[in-house]
Amino acid sequence: MPIALAQPLARTSLQSVVKWGSHVVTVGGDAPVRIQSMTNTDTEDAIGTAIQVKELALAGSELVRITVNTPEAAQAVPYIREQLDRMGISVPLIGDFHYNGHRLLSEFPDCAQALSKYRINPGNVGKGDKRDRQFSQMIEAAIQWDKPIRIGVNWGSLDQELLASLMDANNQRVNPWDAKQVMYEALITSALESAQRAEEIGLAGHQITLSCKVSGVTDLIAVYRELAKRSKYSLHLGLTEAGMGTKGTVASATALGILLQEGIGDTIRVSLTPAPGEARTQEVVVASEIIQSLGLRKFVPSVTACPGCGRTTSTTFQELTKQIDDFLRDQMPVWRTQYPGVENMKVAVMGCIVNGPGESKHADIGISLPGTGEAPAAPVFIDGEKRMTLRGESIAADFQNVVENYIRERFTPRTPSI
């Protein structure tokens, strides 16, 4: 029998619709796994926030969440939306509400309309009767303005009354659960009961997305596996406080990769803490790489690159690989609109004669650079055949020109709409 293909399982959730004007982003069902991110600007700074939203959108974020925490922030939202529209950026905005969302949505209707989706945390909408009333106000706003919602539960702001109730019930069990298992149950119960309440108020079930965010990899996997069993709603994946750099990237890739492979998750965010001077867009790059590595979507041409060894003590191939990778990412916002299918292209940048020619032949376009002691020549392979050899100090620039020419010849330009 042939070895089974390790393809991600199909997702079976309901499909929500997030839109701004004529721009529609579907989430769940048979829609692609979507990428979203969140600004870290002060929303009251409308210009700065609009600029960062644009940067995130151009990097590939299909939904962008902004904090709406004060009356001044709520007043800024319509202006942020206006600035984005002027720049031709139609990415939907998600309003992130905590504590006072019910009041902001009712007192600032222009904000409620300018947003495309509301994020509601059931752990901080109030307590007792006040919680029910304030949660209802937010759902009623979503219904009034025809907006979908995300009910986002977070273990750092979990409903303490619910958790205490479940802990008390656990103490009555003959064989009590582990405290962490009770916490899992509290997360899931909070999300599902809130979703049920939203539907009772009148919000359509397909317009509800759920999330239960934790910061531990194995905790996230356990919670979402169970949530997917009990839920029909689309699911938003992400570790909360994933961390910085390598730690945050690896943790997010591990948790989200496992869940997406199992057919769990409809939209993702990689919550990276930026290093000083690092662009916020890095979290979008990591999210797209996770999805692309699983074969779920294609965002940018894939670059196969040699890791280097004793045969490749020269740094030439390392420098060239980075230049090519940066070049491809920088050009993709333009190429994507001009050359449909360019994201499927495969590029190989290799470092010596051992695997270089073979890998280059398997790519659409590849270059095999000289290793230590090899002749200073770099054969270029196009569609599996050697087409030329590059030499000299301008190999990187010459190869970029070769790539650009290949794209123009290989991919049919999009016909401009009249």
From TrEMBL:
InterPro entries attached to this UniProt entry: Dihydropteroate_synth-like_sf, IspG_bac, IspG_bac-typ, IspG_C, IspG_TIM, NO2/SO3_Rdtase_4Fe4S_sf
Sequence ranges assigned to domain IspG C-terminal in this UniProt record: 303-404
Domain of life (superkingdom): Bacteria
Residues that coordinate or bind [4Fe-4S] cluster: C306, C309, C352, E359
Pfam families given in the database record: GcpE (PF04551), GcpE_C (PF26540)
The EC number(s) this enzyme carries: 1.17.7.3
UniProt KW keywords: 4Fe-4S, Iron, Iron-sulfur, Isoprene biosynthesis, Metal-binding, Oxidoreductase
Annotated SUPFAM superfamilies: Nitrite and sulphite reductase 4Fe-4S domain-like (SSF56014)
Record pathway: Isoprenoid biosynthesis; isopentenyl diphosphate biosynthesis via DXP pathway; isopentenyl diphosphate from 1-deoxy-D-xylulose 5-phosphate: step 5/6
Catalytic reaction equation(s): (2E)-4-hydroxy-3-methylbut-2-enyl diphosphate + oxidized [flavodoxin] + H2O + 2 H(+) = 2-C-methyl-D-erythritol 2,4-cyclic diphosphate + reduced [flavodoxin]
Location of the IspG TIM-barrel domain: 25-287
GO MF, one example: 4-hydroxy-3-methylbut-2-en-1-yl diphosphate synthase activity (ferredoxin)
Function noted in UniProt: Converts 2C-methyl-D-erythritol 2,4-cyclodiphosphate (ME-2,4cPP) into 1-hydroxy-2-methyl-2-(E)-butenyl 4-diphosphate.
Name assigned to this protein: 4-hydroxy-3-methylbut-2-en-1-yl diphosphate synthase (flavodoxin)
